[in-house]
Amino acid sequence: MDSKANPEKIYPSGYIPKENSSVDVRNQLLDEILKSAPTEFINTDLFTVMSKRRSTRKFTDKIVETKKIDKIIAAADTAPTAGNFQGFEIFYIKSPGKKQQLVEACNNQPYVNAPVVLVFCKNPARVKLDLPQEILKKFAIQDATLAAAYSQLAAQAMGLSSIWIGMFDEQKIMKIINTELIPSSVLCIGYPKQDKFPKPRRNLKEIVHTVW
Ligand SMILES: Cc1cc2nc3c(=O)[nH]c(=O)nc-3n(C[C@H](O)[C@H](O)[C@H](O)COP(=O)(O)O)c2cc1C
After folding, report:
1. I need a labelling partner for 206 at 20 to 30 A (CA). Which of 37, 100, 105, 157 fits?
2. Half-sphere exposure at residue 151, Cβ-oriented, CA atoms within 13 angstroms
3. Domain 65-192 top-level CATH class
4. Can you name the residues that pair with 116 across neighbouring β-strands?
5. pTM of the shown model
């Protein structure tokens, strides 16, 4: 156990999660956005949301309400992160011109030009843990990925649909959004043109490898 660590808590050497700096209020804005009532009736039961989610590559032109976008972004901020250092950043792309450039940066995938486009980037410099750089980078990938996954589920919970983009030219995206941070995913969100059934999956028994 690390000597600097809170003696009541046990962490591995070098891993000291960020403590709350002030009071118990974690983030008023975040909690307010998360608690705000939905504008329409939607079944937000987590497992219903999960069972209905299906990637969409065709969106209607309907504008996504700001309240929903706020919630999608707030959801990302509820994801666990390594040491609670939040080793990621979200770039919310509003410019139609930049969205079009992102299409090209994402191997000409036209649906990247979606009503809402969020680029999740890794920010290992935020992860202030006394660990090798390689581990910090690994943490930042996981932080950014989890954050995007939380946003994706939140979008689904509010009647929206999305497509996760992982095929892109990192350097091109970094130039378009003007950052030194490496993107981990591009999440494109909107109202689906069509409701589709979820895709089939492997048998659960094939996925799980029980280890005794
Ligand atoms: C890491 C990752 C990368 C992906 N990259 C792309 C992509 O570049 N383009 C695309 O159209 N879909 C992409 N997808 C979406 C997957 O194709 C989709 O999630 C998968 O076919 C399963 O379908 P479902 O999301 O409807 O269950 C990606 C998904 C993940 C998780």
Report:
1. 157
2. 31
3. alpha beta
4. 189
5. 0.92
Cα separation of 112 and 167, whole Å? Answer: 11
Instruction: Give the pLDDT score at 3.
Output: 43
What is the Cα–Cα distance from 51 to 106, expressed in whole angstroms? 28
Using CB distances shorter than 6 Å, the residues near ligand 1 are 54-55, 57, 109, 163-167, 198-199
Sign of CA dihedral 148, 153, 159, 164: positive
Q: If you compute the radius of gyration of the chain from its CA atoms, what whole number of angstroms results?
A: 19
- Residue whose Cα lies nearest atom 20 of ligand 1: it is 55
Q: Where are the beta strands (DSSP E) in 25-144?
A: 88-93, 116-122
For the chain, the structural domain boundaries read 65-192
For ligand 1, atom 1, name the residue with the nearest CA. Answer: 166
Instruction: Tell me how far the alpha carbon of residue 29 lies from the centroid of ligand 1, in angstroms.
Output: 31
19 vs 20, more confident: 19
Give yes or no for a contact between 71 and 36, defined as CB atoms under 8 angstroms apart.
Answer: yes
Per DSSP, 39 falls in state: S
